[in-house]
Amino acid sequence: MKHRAPGLRNVSVNQTSVPEMLNWPNPTKIVKSSGSPIDTRETQAFTLNGDLWHVKIEGNDCDFHLEVSGPGDSSSADRVIVEVAQGPAFTQIRNLLIDALMNAGEGDLRNSKSLDLSQPLPIQVTGFAFFDAFHYSRSNPKRGHGHGTSAVGTIWELHPVWQLSVRTGTRPTLATGGAHAVMGEPGGAAPEGVFDFAISRSFLEKLEGGNSISPAVNFPLGEHSAIHNLLSDCEMHVAGTPEGTDFGWPNAVVVEPPNLCHFDPQGSEGGDTSAWLATFDDLAGQKCQVTGFPRIFTEHASGAGGASNPNHVFEIHPALSIGCGDQRISFQNFLTALPGMRAISPATAASCIADRQLEVRFDSNSQQYVFRETGGRCGNFAIVEVDAVNPSWIRSISGGHSAIARVTADGQTTATLKIYTLAPSAMDAWLGASASSPGGPSSSRLLHGLFTYDYYAIEKVVHPRGGDWQTTADWTRVPFPLAFIVFGEAESAPWSQE
Description:
It contains 7 helices and 24 strands. The protein is mainly β. Strands 2-3-4-6-5 form a 5-stranded mixed barrel.
């Protein structure tokens, strides 16, 4: 089973996460040697994002054994194993990983059988689920015996892995290898040159004209993922293809309604929410109007995770409503921070805010603005504490509010960060009320939300107020490129638990 041939064409690919894999239940019947699946999950393939901490060349079959934590987690966090098999079908991936480790200064796998990384290497992999029953133990049924280092928290693996993307070097460029060619990018060829993503002028004009943090965008909906569990993000990925407006490159867009693992289609909490699957089955292929925050970020720019999660940097996330014909679904009341939702480590969040930089130039051939990013390690959900907000820095904007805040993401350092709250959430009501308070917010708040590139900051550079659209071919820095989309209030500061 663990040496199955790679296959993209004959299997659907689902998105998963390290916390989700750590909670996969063991098969009901454990068979230590089997040439066929012992659990239906072994017939499925999954895409996983994480941080690589340990690599070993297995002595029995020469597979590359990789131990991966969740993005932004520490070296002591629980990990899962993903393995790259040997043979011609996997040579490209193995060589890519060898080069990436050497470029990162972590050692040469050609001369060493095992490497413990001093700094994690962010990777994305796609492969079959595999329960390594050989390591099953009745005394420790979850972790087993002799299954990697002590940090490995489950016997479940992704094995074999047939696609792998690595973010390497001082500039986080993306490298992708696989046993099959990577699926074609939606929207045609990319602009020329080295860059991380591109945004079309027409899309920026649409955002600028709408002047909203929850604009309405029309496009057909496509495939959807499973409902992610709470330890992942409690959301669902729904693919869309822009029509009429070219977003940029990659041109796909993914819609992510919030907290579908907690709220059912009637808005009830805490029960079975699987009815969402049939709801989105019915919406597939329909042209819909989607309203929500136009998030721009590169975490899924490479290593496509199946039809529901294509390579993309554009998201409607969180999606607040979907209207298809006479049917309208609202997610506005679902926007909150649920207890138990994961967040990247405080050190990673602080690094992202302090060190991430973004540059832009105009590509005349494609008529798109291309971007390259440097510095900082960023992830998805994070927790920050708002220490101070001057009421004069709070702005009412269509769809909610924005503010320039002084925040800490690690309890030690303080930085300036733009925050967005979306109506009619509780945190939007709080920020709106703070605007009329003479001293601003009466106390600090712990906010749980998402990092995004701030399209208002981008527009200030490419279309200065009262000026022309800039078309310089030289790289130009975007000041304060990051913003934070607030979902709700966190229960506790993660740095207090370290």
